[in-house]
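hey so u asked for the seq, here:
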Amino acid sequence: MTTFVQLHMLVSYPPSNLNRDDLGRPKTAMMGGALRIRVSSQSLKRAWRMSPVFDAGLAGHRGVRTKEMGTNIFQSFTTGVPLSALLRGEQGSTPAFAPVDETKAREWSRAIATVFGKLKEAKKGADGAKQADPLEIEQLAHFSPEEIAAIEELVARAATEKSAPTEDELKGLFRSHTAADIAMFGRMLAANPKYNTEAAVQVAHAITVHASAVEDDFFTAVDDLNRGEEDVGAGHMGETEFAAGLFYLYVCIDRDLLLENLQGDEALAKAAVASLLEAAATISPTGKQNSFGSRAYASYILAEKGSRQPRSLSVAFLAPVTDREDMLGAAIARFEETRANMEKVYGPCCDEWRAVNARAGEGTLADLTTFVTE
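ran it, structure tokens below
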């Protein structure tokens, strides 16, 4: 039977604009007949994946998601600097091999990049002449550390021997990998679907447990050198949108699929689950943080383990929470009541559970981490 780890969190954000829509406003959703503020799954996963928590907990086991790998490969060919050094931003690294001339470098870079996606079409310049063939692919591709190392090895071999990558070498670039972020959040490679990875972690869009409206902030900026001799007004005027709210977040981890995606590496699977829990509990999306400073930790976390079919408990907040005196306390009580009633109807929905309640000072993140990784 598949083992699932489910995380339910309540996180309160003060005025913020963590995740914007196409008009620059906080994203929203209608639920239970009330407008809610929403933070998308994509925004949350991006913040977690790029966080110091993942840096520390999953060092050496994180991929790179980009359209521009071909550009970096080309730069590696023409400078002799290893690809991994370029991706780390070490532009001045000591060359590892003699550079290749630009014509061959572009041709070979395009051959390698094409393995991971369709290349963009060449554009025409202002004079109508066709520009150089682009090195970027059309869709984002997520490259594992093992695949980056294989590309780097192929670049060095081709540059050293001054011969183009062979068909077999190109086919061999896809490798069994231990990229924890790919294992958790999956990847799709339209050019080579057989190397797709089914995500082992499902992340719901976070929504406020109460009705919430988007508000407008009118602001001005003052010119420091304006002495008020001619123009005493502001140097700049603008408007930005924001909202505040207590959010419910749900995460489901397929523990068996995660282990399979990581080639059976049990220690790495535990590190991935631990990093995910810590990031979800402590890392905020980066949107408008400099303007609002809206970083927040989860105030309540319930973790469940078991082989029963997973379920979100967002239904607890289908009717908006309206308690203005203690909204967090009311939300926790509503959540726990809904969970208890679900278990009366369906039976135990998990084998074990643990909770952390920062409002009451109960439990620790360390203990919860031990629980979810056992």
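Residues 64-178 form one domain. The chain has two domains: 4-59+200-221+238-373, 64-178.
lmk if thats what u needed
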